[in-house]
Amino acid sequence: MKLLTHNILTSHVKGVTKGYPLLIKATEVRVNEVEFNPQFVSRMIPKLEWSALVQAAEGDLPSSLIQDYENNEEFLRKVHRVLLEVEVIEGCLQCPESGREFPISRGVPNMLLNEDDS
Amino acid sequence: MSSCRRPEHMAPPEVFYNEEEAKKYSQNSRMIEIQSQMSERAVELLNLPEDQPCFLLDVGCGSGLSGDYLSEEGHVWVGMDISTAMLDVALEREVEGDLILGDMGQGMPFRPGSFDGCISISALQWLCNADKKSHSPPKRLYTFFSTLYSSLARGARAVFQIYPENSEQLELITAQAMKAGFTGGMVVDYPNSSKAKKFFLCLFAGVSGVLPKGLGSETVDRGVSNQAQFTGQRSRFKNMKGKSVKKSKDWIMEKKERRRRQGKDVRADTKYTGRQRRPRF
Fold it and tell me: Is A39's CB within 8 Å of B55's CB?
C-alpha cells in the first residue's frame, strides 16, 4: 500500500463519522524506485490531506505546504518519494474512532467488512 | 454452455475466482487481448485531459489486466477486487497499481473527490446477484454508486464495461446509478454484431456531459441507435441481440440489402417499401 493510497483511504464502517485518517501500524515497509513525474505530483498535492501525509511520512515532509511548490523540484521529489515509492507491505490500518483494524498483507489492505459493519 | 457464459450464476465472485480460475483467466491470451481492448475503449470514453497522468480507480481489477493498460497510458491507479486469488495473480504479475481487497457492494472506502476517473471491466454484473441471504442487490448497487459518486472529483467520469443479462438488470443498474446522483447513459459499440457488441455504462459525476457515440455507427441501419440517454421513461430495452424486430421496416430494408450483397435480384426501394398494408391485403 503506497502512502498516496493511504491518504485517500477511510473507514467505511456504518456509524463511524471520523474514520480518517487511518493510523498506520507497519511491521514491514519497502521503498521502490518509481519514475518521477513532476506534473503528476504537482497536480496531486492540492488534493491531498497534507497533515495526514506528514503524519504518515514520519518526519520526511515539512508540516505545512511550502509556497510555490510547483517549481520546487527538490520538494516535488520528496513528495514523490513519500507518495509513490514508500510502500507498506505488512501491518495494519487502525480506525481513529473505533479502533477497528484493517490488516495489510503483501501490500494489500483488507477492507472487507463483516455483516454488522455495513 | 450457459454456465460458462454467465459465471455469476455459478458462485459468488470470491468463490468463482479461486486460484485455478484466476490462473486460467490471466493466461488466456484471447482474454488478455479482449480485456486490453475494452480497457482502451473505456479509457477513451473517460475523456481525460490529453497527455496528463491521472489518478484512477479500477473497480473489479482482478489480476490487473485492465490496470496494465492504465499504467501503459501513464496513469496512476488503485484497483479493488473481492477475490484474493485474483489479487495474488496481480501481485505475481507485479502490476504497478495499488491493490485493495474489498467488496464494491459494501461501499468505496475513499475520501470525497479522490479520483480523476473510474473504470470497471466486466465486473458490475457480479453485483446484481444476491450471493448471501442478507444481500439485497438494489441496496448494494446503491451503496456502491453513491460512495463511488462521492469518491470521484467533480466532472469525473466512471465507465463500466458490462455484459447485461437482460433489460431488467440494465434498468436496475441505471436506476441505482441515477439515484446516486450520476447522469449519463449507455454507449453501445457495434450494436448490429452479436459478437462484437459491447456495452459501456458511461456515468458523469457532477457535470452533465455529452454522451459519446458508440462505435460502428457508420454501418448502423436506420432505426438502430447506439446511445441510450437516461430518461425518466421506463422503456424496455428491446433488441438485446442487436437485430431489428422481425418484419419491421428496418428488418425488411436490412434483408433486401443482404440479398443485394449476395447478388440476388431485389426489387428497387420505393416509398412503398416496408409500408404497412391495409388489412384486406
Answer: no
Q: What is the ipTM of this complex?
A: 0.94
- Give the CA diameter of chain B: 71
pTM to 2 decimal places: 0.80
Domain B28-205 has CATH 3.40.50.2020: no
**Yes or no, beta carbons of B98 and A5 under 8 Å apart:** yes
First to last CA, chain A: 23
Write out the three cell numbers for B177.
446509478
| B103/A12 Cβ within 8 A | no
Task: Give the CATH number of the domain where residue A103 resides.
Answer: 2.20.25.10
**Residue A27: partners with Cβ closer than 8 Å, 6 or more residues away:** A90, A91
Cβ proximity of B197 and B191 under 8 Å: yes
Residue B60 CA to residue B101 CA, distance in Å, equals: 10
Mean pLDDT by 10 residues, chain B (281 residues): 65 81 79 90 93 95 94 95 94 95 95 96 87 81 96 95 89 94 92 87 85 70 50 48 70 86 85 82 62
Q: Which residues in chain A are closer than 8 Å to B55, comparing Cβ atoms?
A: 4, 40, 44, 47
The domain total for chain A is: 1
> Rounded to an integer, what distance in angstroms lies between the CA atom of residue B89 and that of residue B146?
30
Range of the domain at A54: 3-117
Q: Is B155's Cβ below 8 Å from some Cβ in A?
A: no
Phi, psi of B23 (to 5 degrees): -65, -45
Check CB contact under 8 Å for B111 and A44.
Answer: no
CA nearest to A8, candidates B141, B94, B116: B116
pLDDT in tens, B216-236: 765 444 434 456 555 544 444
- Tens digit of pLDDT for each residue in A40-85? 999 999 999 999 999 998 878 888 888 888 888 999 999 999 999 9
